[in-house]
Amino acid sequence: MSILSTRAISSADAIDTVFRFFSSYRDGVDDKDVRADLTFGNPHEMPLPAMVAAIKARMEPKSANWFAYKTSEEEPRTVIAKALGAELGLPFHPEDIAMTQGAFGAVALAFSLLLDPGDECIIPLPGWFCYATTLRARNAVPVPVPLAEATFDLDVAAIEAAILPRTRIVVVNTPHNPTGVIYSRERLTELAAMLTRKSAEFGRPIFILSDEPYRRIRFDGVPFTSPAAVYPHTLIDYSYGKILLAPGLRIGYLAICPSMPEADKQALRAAALTSQVGGGWNFPDAPLQYAVADLERMSIDIGELQRKRDRLHGALTQWGYSMTRPEGTFYLWGRAPGGDSVGFIRRLADQGVFVMPGTLFDRPTDFRISLTGTAEMVEASLPVFEAATER
């Protein structure tokens, strides 16, 4: 008999594959033998100097309560409401914004606000590998629904078929990790119409959680539509860690769609604070909140990311790989030669190139490349990718 709670065991089981990969993928490999680590979306160069300067400036206390307990502070909420409103064309109010420990904290907050034990949440397949473990930690039920096979677009019919009376949330991740697909306004409108119909059928709203941490990382001028623009019962999560390529800076937010019925908005606003406290003080550290006005104006070089995307995508497709051309995010997604991602990544690893197997996304035929490696890493990896097609 285990001393652990069933939800702790279930949550661990849901992410076991990821943790085993993370702890062992470079076992026995000397750093000098690594040509390119293209696994996780981590930085491989020094951070943005302006970001460092902004945070340093906010570390210097300007009052006795500078480092006192902080919840969702008024100044960053006001800055975000204005900026987000201008970006999405929606009239956000500062009270619509809950400051969180990154987008991960915002996802966890949304799940805590909306889900009772046994409630169901539809998540995309393939999709981010932390949805399921976060749901299981709340005794909620993840329901993976495959994206459209050829395009990785939303499959609205498949989502509808998976909706049951206990469905409370549909997660929409756009731009999508791991494929880089951005969903069109037309597809989101189709989803919204279906959810409106199903919500009426069950007598309570089915929410969209719009997972948007890569919203500002888009290529080729591809436009972006948030589900909040077409569906009132939408919550948006966002992280500054992506646009700044600083995932260790845990600051983000959960935003309530302004067109949501007023009574529902008020209920969510009132419950967010206590849910964040009960969730382990799920607020960003004080200096990060003070720096939001500066962080809002900063970005890594999206053009450089696009150049690395073009270099890798062009080379791999030339050599016969079946690759999805990402419209956004840090990632390039494709089919492993022979359809065996584990065997494929082992062959690459033997030559000092590391990528992520699709098994972490419940897609054992595919693999993911992170574009956050340096340009030098990209060039060093290309001969290894080319040789891997010959096996």
Automatic annotation (TrEMBL):
Keyword Nucleotide-binding: no
Highest taxon, organism lineage: Bacteria
Recorded GO MF terms: pyridoxal phosphate binding; transaminase activity
Listed cofactors: pyridoxal 5'-phosphate
Keywords: Aminotransferase, Transferase
Family under the similarity heading: Belongs to the class-I pyridoxal-phosphate-dependent aminotransferase family.
PANTHER family, alphabetized: ASPARTATE AMINOTRANSFERASE YHDR-RELATED
Protein name: Aminotransferase
Cross-referenced InterPro entries: Aminotransferase_I/II_large, NHTrfase_class1_PyrdxlP-BS, PyrdxlP-dep_Trfase, PyrdxlP-dep_Trfase_major
Domain named Aminotransferase class I/classII large: residues: 38-379
Entry-linked Gene3D superfamilies: Type I PLP-dependent aspartate aminotransferase-like (Major domain) (3.40.640.10)
Enzyme nomenclature, EC number: 2.6.1.-
